[in-house]
Amino acid sequence: MSEAVETARLMDAVYRHQRHVYDLTRKYYLLGRDHLIRELLPPSGGDVLELGCGTGRNLIAAAKIYPDANFYGLDISAQMLETAERNIARAGLGNRIRLIEGDAANPAATDALGVASFDRVFYSYTLSMIPVWREALSAGASRLNTGGRILVVDFGQQSGLPAWFGKILFRWLKSFHVTPRADLREELELVAAKSACRLEFRSLYRGYSDYAELLKR
Q1: Which DSSP string do the residues of 113-181 spell out, in sequence order?
Q2: Which of 30, 56, 90, 184 could join 84 via S-S bond, C-beta 3.0 to 4.6 A?
Q3: In Å, how far are 9, 40, 52, 149 from 118, measured between CA atoms?
Q4: Those residues with Cβ within 8 angstroms of residue 138's Cβ, 6 or more apart along the chain or in another chain
Q5: What is the Cα–Cα distance from 33 to 41, expressed in whole angstroms?
Q6: Nearest to residue 41, comparing CAs of 14, 72, 69, 76?
Q7: Residues of the chain whose pLDDT is less than 70?
Q8: Domain, as residue range, for 112
Q9: What CATH number should be reported for the domain holding residue 117?
Q10: Could you report the per-residue pLDDT of 60-105, keeping only the tens digit for each?
Q11: Which of 26, 30, 210, 70 has its CA nearest to residue 133?
Q12: 59, 73 Cβ separation under 8 angstroms
């Protein structure tokens, strides 16, 4: 069995039931998602791709803020995409958001969308869930237009918060197969060097979240 198939089965199993209450529960601790959406600022007519779109929550919020952009979402979980399709239809945005099932680490996974490259590619609390997260970052960079940006928000290392809080959080996240990436900044620096990008990286909420942008020159 390939790693992508194994990951898809795992994500379907984890979220088969959680997907129905995912957005309601996650809003209290997936901090920085709305900050990322405010920073997207896609050009008029631009193409925006979310890798690991889950329930479609971020795509819906972004599509409402940026009515002149086109939005696309990829996820490896058929269960999550089923929920996303339903949420997008309910929001009346089916004509502006297109979804596709696939592996974020595969640069060819979005080919069927018919978009050669994207003006914005973003990852919102997904790199901590993707086993081959480094490959997923590289794949995103390969899909980026010149002048485009990659935006990332994910769990930080809790450096500015009490040690007990980080231990409890990391233990709890592990039960959902979530692993905050201690070397996220170093990997982003490597991607920036390989892809002719400029990196901006900072911590949010006393280290609770890490936020980064890569600008392709």
Answers
A1: GT-S-EEEEEEES-TTT-TTHHHHHHHHHHTEEEEEEEEEEEE---TTS-HHHHHHHHHHHHTTT----
A2: 56
A3: 28, 12, 15, 9
A4: 107, 191, 194
A5: 14
A6: 69
A7: 1-28
A8: 3-216
A9: 3.40.50.150
A10: 999 999 999 999 999 999 999 999 999 999 999 999 999 999 999 9
A11: 210
A12: yes
Closest by Cα among 62, 30, 53 to 130:
53
Written as six digits, the tokens of 157 are 């290392």
Distance from CA of residue 55 to its chain's centroid? 11
The pLDDT score that the predictor gives to residue 88 is 97
Burial (CB < 10 A; 0-12, 13-18, 19+), residue 43, is middle
How far apart are the C-alpha atoms of 103 and 5, rounded to whole Å?
9
Q: At what angle do helices 57-65 and 33-40 cross, to 10 degrees?
A: 40
**Residue 8 and residue 29: Cα distance in Å, rounded?**
24
Q: Are 45 and 115 in contact (CB under 8 A)?
A: no
pLDDT at 28: 54
pLDDT of 176 reads 87
Q: Give the residue among 215, 71, 205, 79 at the shortest CA–CA distance from 152.
A: 215
- Split into its structural domains, the chain has a count of 1
